[in-house]
Amino acid sequence: MLIDAKQQYDSQGFCVMPQRLSDAMLAQVRESISEISGMTRPEVVYEKDGKTVRALHGCHRFDDVCADLVRLPLFVELAESILGEEVYVYQFKVNIKNAVDGERWPWHQDYAFWSIEDGMPADRAMNIAINLDDVYDWNGPLQVLAGTHLLGLIPSPDHGATSGGDWRDHVSADLTYTVGDQEVEELGKRHELHRLTGPAGTISAFHPNIVHSSARNTSSDRRTILYITYNAVSNSPRHAHRPHFLVDPITTAVRKLDQPLALTPA
Ligand code: SIN
Ligand code: MN
């Protein structure tokens, strides 16, 4: 099973898992996320209006349910099999795309941020994405250009920007490091677009160099996706200066925690 997922990941830059979070586990995670959204703390990021919650960061560092989630053997084993060594949690975030006026995420590659801002030596990290709401074509799903993970970092004028700017520009709708529209149009001729849709609980994984984005959500359905980024233990950042809730300074291998009721067949 992990072999199939790894094969798809290696060739396409993403995979969708045959398991999903169980209803019980999903309910626990959603409850935690809803509680954290109402807290006043730096990990909670708002849209430009200053009141709509856009994202939560680093929840595995202070919330027990999220701390258990990142230790699910399926996630850790998938990351270890893809990265070929022990892994730790580099980033944890929840992107809440509000119904009706949910903001977009421009086309980008995650590794641009991790390499330029944090000095991550190689693209030897991977993202797990868990849909916490039902995600459809029309409520701003994550969309990826299959196979672009093999292109390395695509040169962009943005990449000359000096690191050390405001970390909020790495998590806003005006991202610091993007892939330009013209480049995306060219890439779109050779790389198939996939939308990572699926009911709440759907689990997928994607590569740090895959070109991806998500559109505005003008539908009446909120779209929430939780992302866990695992990094190879030997690939820790060389000059991380961003807040600890964005780049976890604890780089010791994550310990798996068997949670037999956490998953169910998709
Ligand atoms: C991301 O690319 O990091 C997030 C995109 C999204 O949640 O739509
Ligand atoms: Mn991204």
TrEMBL record:
Keywords: Dioxygenase, Oxidoreductase. The keyword Oxidoreductase applies. One of its GO terms (molecular function) is 2-oxoglutarate-dependent dioxygenase activity. Transmembrane segments: none annotated. SUPFAM superfamilies: Clavaminate synthase-like. The keyword Oxidoreductase applies. Pfam families: PhyH. PANTHER family: ECTOINE DIOXYGENASE (PTHR20883:SF48), PHYTANOYL-COA DIOXYGENASE DOMAIN CONTAINING 1 (PTHR20883). This is Phytanoyl-CoA dioxygenase family protein. It comes from Nocardia pulmonis.
